[in-house]
Amino acid sequence: MRAPVRIWYVAGQRLCNLSCARCVSIGEWAMSNRYDWKNPEDRDVYEQVVTWIGTRPYPVKVRLGTLGEPFASTFFLEKAAWLTRQSGVEYVELLSNAILLPRRLPKLEADANLGKLSLWLTWHDGQVDLERFIKAAAFAQERYGCFVVVNTLLFETNADAVACARDAAVAAGLRFNVDLGYDPTASTTLQDPSAAVPVLQSSDALDTLAALGGNRALAEAALIGLTSCRGMLCRAGHDTAFIDIHGQAYRCSNYSSQEQPPLGSVLDPGFDLPLRPEPWAPCAARGGCGNKEDLQIAAPLRPSTVPSLGWTDA
Length: 314
Ligand code: SF4
Ligand code: SF4
Known about the structure:
By secondary structure, this protein is α/β, with parallel strands linked by helices. The protein contains 8 helices and 11 strands.
């Protein structure tokens, strides 16, 4: 049987129940506190792309991203639930702020295979009460058997808050991850990573990350990819691909944002990914890689068997 393909798709779903100061969805890709889909065609594209993903003749592992909060959108969840029921789909990973899980998961139960649901849950300090967040994450893991990761982002002044989140996650029996927080407004091609990763303005940022339970080696690989990915070997385009909100497929998300040539459109009849047979190939992007998981230098740092694109089991 053919090896699974990892697909990361970002849908045009935008509604979010929070207003984070450093929201990752900006500009053309901005989230909204008012509307779910900016254009009706975004919804149509979403429906078509998810149908395409769920009917591949080979196994797929899916990260289904959005520009907002997926659990705020009934339409989004209906199709995501359908995807979890498709036999070729090994897992569906959603990125969420967790708050709506206790309300939405019981309603999804009848239509979804929640055992295939992987939840990458980011705690947004200042927006969400930590106790409420941890309870929601534990509810998803314990009641429905979802694969849950509690994620935090390390910025200049929130190390104490990240430590509290780590302690609360560990006490609740939840996986915990801390990543370097990015400034989404910074240029992605700058040579100085501290412009895009504000915590690096402190000289001991990586020590702090490691002390908080983060994976230092993976963070170092991430910083190399951010500033100098050009020419580096990575597997994107071999057994992994990215699909943007318009249904265009790319080697990776950075190829999409840098307008590198796409692999084609998922919306074209009969389209399939023209994946590369060789596992590793050099990168042609100008910099700004945020996909450390796919870099050859990071390959020994994470297992490929967990149902999440980001979890390292470190
Ligand atoms: S939860 Fe996510 S999408 Fe919503 S405001 Fe915060 S960062 Fe943006
Ligand atoms: S930008 Fe894309 S192609 Fe380049 S190293 Fe990163 S994942 Fe690979």
